Amino acid sequence: MASSKKKLQGLVAATITPMTENGLDQVVIHVGALSLKESQELAKHAAEIGADGIAVIAPFFLKPWNKDVLINFLKEVAAAAPALPFYYYHIPALTGIKIRAEELLDGIQDKIPTFQGLKFSDTDLLDFGQCVDQNQQRQFAFLFGVDEQLLSALVMGATGAVGSTYNYLGKKANQMLEAFEQKDFSSALNYQFCIQRFINFVVKLGFGVSQTKAIMTLVSGIPMGPPRLPLQKASREFTDNAEAKLKSLDFLPFTGLKDRNLEACS
After folding, report:
1. Cβ neighbours around 198 below 10 Å, total
2. Rg (CA), the chain
3. Cα-Cα-Cα-Cα dihedral of 240, 243, 244, 245, to 10°?
4. Whose CB has fewer CB within 10 Å in the chain, the N or C terminal residue?
5. How far is CA 244 from the centre of its chain?
6. What amino acid positions are annotated as catalytic residues?
7. How far apart are CA 151 and CA 241, in angstroms?
């Protein structure tokens, strides 16, 4: 574990400067881990190399059983980097932590003064809506993480988005954001439907981290490498089907990997 952590720290340290030099205004580093000590060490390292913030997922092997226990864990991690804005990464489908985000946010800045918001990766729009509604007097960032539902979250007050499909559907997502900001809701809805058509298709094929890496390689031409075990490499059948669907939606208008871009859906 220690060797893996050092490799991760080296990778992050090597990439943060190129990212900021090439146009990223903010770099928030995820430092969550099953071990509190490891999470604290990652948080300290993030501060040392100039991160703009840290984010933490809930520990999911020995799970916190209520809000107070979870906040105590998060508080200890935040204290390891007291000058950095702190964000909670809410993704109950993977962590198994069923503590509602709205409940967690109630009074959280009294315990964690550096708390600035959360990434909400769940389909419970009631919970998300109440996060926004109950905290309108605070300048929290509400970053939505379910790409196929982003437009609904924007209507409810999402201030941004963090998602895996933006690595290859980002142009379409940006067009949706622009249309929404211009109050062209019909166009925004069409862009969201376009994104949904592709996601709905690959979900039926079996969609996860391995398949995301395969699609990123397909679209960018940059080899992303195989996933780590226990994940299995995406099948050639999946990649071929995904490529055909991308082309049918005019996401891949060119036959070669080079110079591919994401054009509008027809």
Report:
1. 23
2. 19
3. 120
4. C
5. 26
6. 89, 119
7. 26
